Amino acid sequence: MKLSLNPNAPDRRLLDESRRTRAMTWIMAIMLFLTVLAGALGLGMFAATAQLDRQLAGRLTIQIVEPNAAVRDGEAAAIRAAVSKLPGVVRAQDVDRQRLAELLKPWLGDTGLDPDLPMPAMIDVETRGGNTTAVEQAARAIVPGARIDRHAQWLSPVRSFMTTMSWLAVGLMLLIATATAAVVLLAARSGLDTHRDTIDVLHMLGSTDVQIARLFQRRIAFDTLLGGLLGTGAALGLVWFLQSRMALVGSEMLSGVALQQRDWFLLLLLPLGFALLATFAARGTVLRALGRTL
To answer: What is the pLDDT of residue 5?
Structure first.
């Protein structure tokens, strides 16, 4: 005799329908809490890296080291005029001496404001499309000894660190997903042992392995989804709080770590993804175990 397909049939119910708190639910809540935090870190770092690339691409600084102030200023004006005429150059501007003095103040103090102190002339250049070769050639054609500093080059260690953190977050998410699958396997096997007598009776009544597997996968999917929503809600609240605190810092680089609307949407999909993962893992485990039993 097959099991009935009406809504109250045994294969439509969830195993162990008591209202007591389930350890499985809280385990999944912790798993999703950690996963969402790792995902937020990864998405934030990827966004910050992309913003850093956009800001630094095609930006460089030309330094003219010349003790004679008149010669130095003339060379700087010639380079600025030549560079400004190049196609693709958005901006070519002298760095103010007052600003240079403020940058050197931790080392030189007020001495940096001395007009007799030889200080290199610096020109900030921003190009469109990241093509800086023409700018370098034009600058060195006028002043062969000019120093060219690409912003992307001296900030490459920062970018490498941010990229490493991004992929570390991805690795943590994969590791937690693997651990979640392992927990589901243990829970499914434990459920099989607990309900062994019930399963034998269902087999004698004509239930198939697939119908029995549905009982376990529904129970585990429900626990995973419930725990995932709890963990995700707590994690998103923490991420929102940290993001609001970073906004108060006023750092341009930290502002790039902020999550966009699509990032929040992707994080909200994680509970559903973990529920599907747990469902398929439980189904496969139960079917394999029942197949070996018969």
So the answer is: 36
